[in-house]
Design a protein that fits this description.
Blueprint: H1 3-13, E1 40-45, E2 50-55, E3 60-66, H2 89-92, E4 104-109, E5 115-120, E6 125-130, E7 135-136, E8 140-141, E9 152-153, E10 158-159, E11 164-169, E12 175-180, E13 185-190, H3 191-198, E14 206-211, E15 216-221, E16 227-232, E17 237-242, E18 254-260, E19 272-275, E20 281-286, E21 291-296, E22 303-308, E23 315-323, E24 326-333, E25 348-353, E26 363-368, E27 372-379, E28 385-392, E29 405-410, E30 418-424, E31 427-430, E32 433-436, E33 440-446
Antiparallel strand pairs: 1-2, 1-33, 2-3, 4-5, 5-6, 6-7, 6-10, 8-9, 11-12, 12-13, 13-14, 15-16, 16-17, 17-18, 19-20, 20-21, 21-22, 23-24, 24-25, 25-26, 27-28, 28-29, 29-30, 31-32
């Protein structure tokens, strides 16, 4: 084993600190300021296969994590730019000898925020990211390193199956569940083994495949980690599993029931779900039906609310904000509306008052995101900051024309968000040229060492 791999294994397995990864939730800090020095925002960019890292103290891009394999060799078939020509996305991922990520999409932090898992939809694999050092786990020194090549060769990640859409850590941090949207299965990986496999010392990260509904889009766990909900983008159903951990904390999934959600989701396209911070509810984004729905997260899993969002709203993600001034659910809308700030077209975020009685929750307001086709959104631990990712570039004639942007908001009053910044995501500077960060999908706000949303 080379020294870099050995050092890497020591560092990443030390995530378990004084015990195992299953114990990490018990030793984490419980509180913190609105922004702390280690806080970072991570955004997956599907068309550039990169992860942008934003420092929320300055709202600027700190670095871009490279998930491509370009410029690992000086010869033309390995280059991003050849003869001065930058390829289109379709041509880029089909270049000869490309072994990098294809369609970087899902992203989620580990319960302690020290790891990120991200999925390559088109490359059928997942990668683990060291969130403290902002680097891909398992990269190795590039034998062809030089003035015109990269210093590292990209890890191949872990091959898991067709169209891995969203990864999710179990609440104890031991496992990673990944929905295979192109199949009818969930793959479960052992996190410690995955770290070792990406470092080249193990090959047994995949524990099992669990049959589920067709086209599973995402898994999310209830607050105590005993129940897993699985939504689909192919059938109007939700699978519910009992996690059923053994004495060591490893899951033994048992299907409890399969819910029929056809009343709420006739088009059968539910890409996202999330359980509420109090653990009592699970909220679903039914994108083509233009509604959100809420169900009880235990017992009979009965429907509590169906919330219309408006014609062609096309909701993507939901996020919860709870603080002294209110309790809301935000839904990012893909629809782009005219009449945004400064007369520039923009998407919006719907605000649902979650303090209202179940059965009467509805949209009580909207706010423009200062970007087009809003997708991922995540709040900081204090629930007074919100970050929003966007799929489309900014329009010509605007300050960040041609850029994919992230937006930041002060949500200390969740019913009256205040715009802070529009952050251009820039580009990844490769030896042969600049690869523009493009088509942002998932966004997470991470504070390493803190009990995060997946804890």
């Amino acid at each position: 084993m080379n020294e870099q791999r050995r050092d890497f294994i020591k560092t990443t397995v030390a995530i378990a600190a004084s015990g195992s990864i299953g114990q990490i939730g018990q030793a984490l800090a419980a509180t913190g300021a609105s922004i702390e020095a280690g806080d970072r925002v991570f955004i997956t960019n599907e068309d550039s296969n990169t992860i942008v890292v934003i420092d929320p103290r300055t709202n600027t891009v700190e670095t871009t994590i490279n998930l491509t394999s370009f410029d690992e060799d000086p010869r033309p078939p390995f280059r991003f730019v050849t003869a001065g020509v930058a390829p289109t996305h379709a041509a880029m991922i089909h270049k000869p000898l490309y072994h990098g990520c294809i369609d970087a999409h899902g992203a989620v932090p580990s319960p302690d925020g020290k790891l990120l898992a991200t999925s390559g939809r088109g490359s059928s694999n997942i990668y683990l990211i060291d969130a403290v050092n902002k680097r891909v786990i398992g990269n190795v020194p590039n034998p062809a390193a030089g003035p015109t090549t990269n210093a590292e060769r990209l890890s191949s990640g872990i091959l898991i199956g067709r169209e891995p859409h969203e990864p999710t850590f179990t609440r104890n941090g031991r496992e990673l569940w990944v929905t295979l949207r192109g199949e009818d299965r969930i793959v479960i990986l052992d996190v410690e083994r995955a770290v070792r496999q990406m470092g080249g010392t193990d090959a047994g990260a995949v524990l099992r495949y669990v049959p589920t509904i067709n086209g599973p889009a995402q898994v999310w766990f209830n607050a105590n980690g005993t129940i897993a909900f699985v939504a689909s983008q192919k059938v109007a159903k939700v699978d519910v599993f009992r996690v059923n951990p053994d004495a060591a904390g490893n899951s033994r999934p048992e299907r409890i029931t399969t819910l029929d959600v056809s009343v709420q989701d006739k088009p059968a396209f539910t890409p996202f779900l999330k359980t509420s911070p109090d653990g009592n509810e699970v909220w679903f984004s039914h994108k083509l039906a233009d509604v959100l729905s809420c169900r009880a997260a235990s017992d009979s899993f009965e429907i509590q609310d169906t919330v219309p969002l408006g014609n062609l709203a096309r909701s993507n993600h939901v996020e919860f904000v709870e603080n002294a001034k209110g309790k809301v659910v935000y839904a990012s809308l893909a629809r782009v509306d005219d009449g945004g700030p400064g007369g520039v077209a923009s998407s919006q975020i719907a605000i649902i008052d979650r303090s209202a009685k179940p059965g009467s929750r509805r949209v009580v307001g909207n706010f423009f995101t200062h970007g087009r086709e809003s997708h991922g959104l995540w709040t900081n631990p204090a629930n007074d900051l919100l970050y929003v990712a966007h799929e489309q570039d900014e329009l010509p004639g605007t300050p960040n024309a041609g850029q994919t942007v992230c937006s930041a908001f002060d949500v200390s009053d969740p019913f009256n968000p205040k715009f802070i910044a529009q952050i251009p995501l820039g580009s990844l500077k490769l030896p042969s040229g600049e690869l523009r960060n493009k088509k942002s999908i998932n966004l997470v706000y991470v504070r390493p060492g803190y009990r995060g949303q997946t804890a």
